[in-house]
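Worked Example 4.2. Consider the chain below.
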Amino acid sequence: MAAGDRVATVPERMSDHWRIAMFALTNLFLSMHRTFTGHEGHSPSVVLIYCTVSVGNIQKLMRERVIPSEFTATAVLPREWVVPMSRSAIAATTGLPRETVRRHVAQMIEAGLLVEDPRGGVTVVPGAIQDRALEPLLEAMITEFSRTTEALLRAGVIEVRNGA
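Applying the procedure from the previous section yields the following structure tokens:
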């Protein structure tokens, strides 16, 4: 893809390829789920909470039009870029019962997966990507994502469009 190009859906091709698209996307979900739960042997609920907090914590940064290059890899984010997530927000986002979230978050804090933030809520432990050896996990997920993208491109339900 050239600079300015974008990936777009092709609605008129989707109805002819729902089975292929659904297989590709569901397989991607299952592969990512297997990768996450298998990495450290956590339950699906713990993985769901951890991923929710991870995404919630960096939402401020990801809303930036241009993400500063020093924050695109694995550098620890300054705390002003990290948005703590409340247990209520985690429950609302995941659909898990609040008591389940409260119990798992307490266990995750004790296990060193999450930390209480002085501003309220919880955050992922700074440096988690390196400290928990997540780089190979991320690489495996990107590889599976690429395979899924190729399948969707071949089916014609997505395409690369020239941004010019």
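The helical segments are 11-14, 18-40, 44-57, 59-62, 87-94, 98-110, 128-131, 135-155. The domain at 6-161 is CATH 1.10.10 (Arc Repressor Mutant, subunit A). Compare this with Example 4.1 before moving on.
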